[in-house]
Amino acid sequence: MTYPRPSRAVLLAAGASLALAGCGRKAAPPAPPPQAVDVMTLRASPVGITTDLPGRTEAVEIAQVRPQVNGVIQKRLFVEGSDVTAGQQLYQIDPSAYQATYDSAHAQLLRAQAARVTAQARLDRYGPLARAHAVSRQDYDDALATAREADADIAQARATMNRAAVDVGYTRVLSPISGRIGRSLMTVGALATVNQTSNLSIVTRLDPIYVDVNLPATRLLELRRELKQGRLSRAGDDAATVSLTLEDGSSYETQGRLEFSEVNVDETTATVVVRAVFPNPDHMLLPGMYVHAELQEGVDPTALRVPQVAVARTPHGDPIVMVVGTDRKVSIRPVTTGPAVGTDWIVTAGLKPGEQVVVSGLQKIHPGDTVNPSEVAQTDAPQGQGKAG
């Protein structure tokens, strides 16, 4: 059986269909080039660890000037707001009554001394006579008792006179310490009394001056643990150095030294009071000022610093970084961060020296991607200080 030959139109239609079917197949696109990223090779370096804490200035010495005797204030002998020295007279209280008491006690002393002369002369005469049995033993004993009573009268009169002299001295109100005196709280003509609760004035020693800060007890435990484990080392004499920032943001030009830390923890705030002492020759610091103290705690000799821009956070807030392996593939690495050093974090766990951390281009890469890394240099933090707290 023979079939009819297809027409030329049918052959052309079939060829067109085969051509269209061939055009529907596309060649696979070439793989994209590795993403270019900036990386930093970690290196260990010593970093000083400091803690920045708020604090208050406290005077080293404060003397509340109060009267020791009763009387009317006759004179004020200082300029308010000036510097005074220890022993300088500040006020004069009317001394007339106390001077009269002193003069009376002095007269009693002279009378007792005169009676002592008479009693001693009698005792001297009765001594040889008693040995020669020219006078009775009773007469000699009476003469001896009279002489000793005269000695006692002299001692009592002298004590009364000395007490009166102390009261006369108290009418001259003196400065107990050297420092700067404030305003006078009582005027001339006012009655000063021994048991009054108000001060005549207050003298404050301003040089040197204390700065008290509250260090969290948890931070204190952490520091001691790091020192014990050898992660931190003492910075020699500088370990006791404290820097100060004033309330207006300026830096205090002179550094202080750590004086002591309190032995008890405040139960309400869970902090320990740490006291530093600062030279204050220009009286720039005044008691009660709010300041920020920077305590140098030690040195981490093998600190690893990672730029803060390289540290991301998980939804739970845990820090992570992107690390480039030897095969140029990227992986996520959880880390533990410590104090800040300028624009870097100190990483205490999760990384080691020599590893490469991605610092730029994080938004364009995913774990497992192959990248084209470019090395960037690590910048030093200002003064190599890490701040905590």
Write the SSE topology.
Layout: H1 8-23, E1 35-41, E2 44-65, E3 71-76, E4 83-84, E5 89-93, H2 96-131, H3 137-170, E6 172-174, E7 179-181, E8 191-192, E9 201-216, H4 217-229, E10 241-245, E11 256-261, E12 271-278, E13 290-307, E14 312-313, E15 319-324, E16 330-334, E17 336-341, E18 344-349, E19 356-360, E20 371-375, E21 385-388
Parallel strand pairs: 1-20, 2-21
Antiparallel strand pairs: 1-19, 2-9, 2-13, 3-5, 3-8, 4-7, 5-6, 7-9, 9-12, 10-11, 10-13, 11-12, 13-18, 14-15, 15-16, 15-19, 17-18
Helix pairs in contact: 2-3
Biggest sheet, open or closed, and with what strands and sense? 6 strands, mixed
Overall pLDDT: 82
Helical percentage: 25-40%
| Secondary structure tally: strands | 21
- The count of domains is 3
Inertia-based shape: elongated
Rg is 45 Å
The H-and-E topology, N to C, reads as HEEEEEHHEEEEHEEEEEEEEEEEE
Number of separate helices:
4
Structural class: alpha+beta
Segments where pLDDT lies below 50 for 5+ residues? 18-22, 380-384
- Given this structure, which CATH class of the largest domain is correct? Mainly Beta
For CATH, the homologous superfamily of the largest domain is named as: RNA polymerase II/Efflux pump adaptor protein, barrel-sandwich hybrid domain
CATH architecture of the largest domain: Beta Barrel
The rounded distance between the terminal residues' Cα atoms is 102 Å
